[in-house]
Amino acid sequence: MTSLIQDIKELAHAQRDEVIGWRRWLHRHPELSQQEFGTMEFVAERLREMGLNPRTGIGRTGVMAMIEGAEEPESYCVALRADYDALPLTECTGLEFASENTGVMHACGHDMHTSSLLGAAKILCALRHKMRGSIMLIFEPSEEMYPGGARMMMDDGLFHDRMPDEIYSFHCLPEMDFGRVGMKKGKYMASTDELYWTVKGKGGHGATPHMSVDPILVASHIVIALQQIVSRNAPPMMPTVLSFGKMIGSGRTNIIPDEVKMEGIIRTFDEKWRLEAHDKIRKISTGVAEAMGAECDLFIDYGYPYVVNDDQCTQQVHDNACRFLGEENVEWLDLRMTAEDFAFFAQKIPACYFRIGIHEPGTPFANLHRPNLMVDERSIELANGLVAYNAIMALTNRIKK
């Protein structure tokens, strides 16, 4: 397969500037979840230029296209997925192609994912005469917002005509240097549920707290009490995170408010424990509030399941990456408590979700979801080449079911 690797690397290098240009256009024109109409049309037009016939509007703003190989296109199908929604952040990178949409930024690297998959698609189109089977390209909207673009697209008939036999996706990793990739077999990323509390008390003057039921105090006790979910209720070997990100009591220096609203998340790796944790959170929250003379309403928004990577698919990505990049640039990763709606795909299809480093060595580090996130654009050429190579090899070495 040395000749194939060389062909792919030459194609990836030849189209490097064009694909980086696509990434910069996407970065300059970010769109929030479920609003990605311009992004959808941009992606669809690039696919049409490759001679493909994309379906648009799947799950409102998603795109899908098929690349059929020269041999047995109906025999086996490998899906490749990228996400393309942005985040509500104001960019502060200083890039000449910084966001032109005030308060919206590609701060999670989705512009890099989408341009890389478009680049891989162009390579695959050029090499379709060497392909056996077919490739499904999935450009997913709304990964950052419940219920998630993956579920929305599937509910809207994404797989109505063809169910892929395998599916692959990657995410950029800022803490990993350019040139390196990583993956993990089995459970990889956590489930995620959003928690919304409303603690109702009785407002009043700050100087006469005995005449009130202070919801700020009650909410604070709930926060403290719920720390036992992780420290004393979660099985010691089960990774679990319970975090609070928002607490609002609309009083002022001398006004005790009538209610407090809180928001948070819980993440873990076991469905049975996940439901048990929900029950404990609800009982502790309402119990603490009742004991202090208040009320507590809790809404749990049941979110994405945890991501499970298929052992064979993941080993295949590992081996292909070693051949494409060299063994010294490939590593096995640990569990992550971040979440991904790619989990919905992985529940139905053997899958691998892997990582590609985007950090330029020697430069300051900025994490995902930060307004100063930077991407070493050399990683785009690497990504579209590796994704294309892995797809062709997955077809060539079809996993027998």
What does this structure look like?
This protein is α/β, with parallel strands linked by helices. It has 2 domains: 279 residues, Aminopeptidase, CATH 3.40.630.10; 111 residues, Alpha-Beta Plaits (2-Layer Sandwich), CATH 3.30.70. It has 11 helices and 16 strands. The strands form 4 sheets. The chain has an 8-stranded mixed sheet with strand order 1-2-4-3-5-16-6-15, with helices on both faces. The chain has a 4-stranded antiparallel sheet with strand order 10-12-8-13. A two-stranded antiparallel ribbon has the order 7-14. It is elongated, with a radius of gyration of 24 Å.
Could you name the ranges where pLDDT drops below 50 across 5 or more consecutive residues?
Answer: none
- Number of strand segments: 16
Percent strand equals 15-25%
DSSP helical segment count: 11
| Overall radius of gyration | 24 Å
**Terminal CA distance:** 24 Å
Order of neighbouring strands in the sheet with most strands: 1-2-4-3-5-16-6-15
- What is the C-level CATH assignment of the largest domain? Alpha Beta
Order of helices and strands: HHHEEEHEHEEEEEHHEEEHEEHEHEH
User: What is the molecular shape?
Assistant: elongated
Number of domains: 2
CATH topology of the largest domain: Aminopeptidase
Mean pLDDT comes to 96
Largest sheet: 8 strands, mixed
Overview in brief:
This protein is an alpha/beta fold and 401 residues long.
Name the descriptors.
single chain, 401 residues, alpha/beta, Aminopeptidase, Alpha-Beta Plaits, 2 domains, 8-stranded mixed sheet, 4-stranded antiparallel sheet, 16 strands
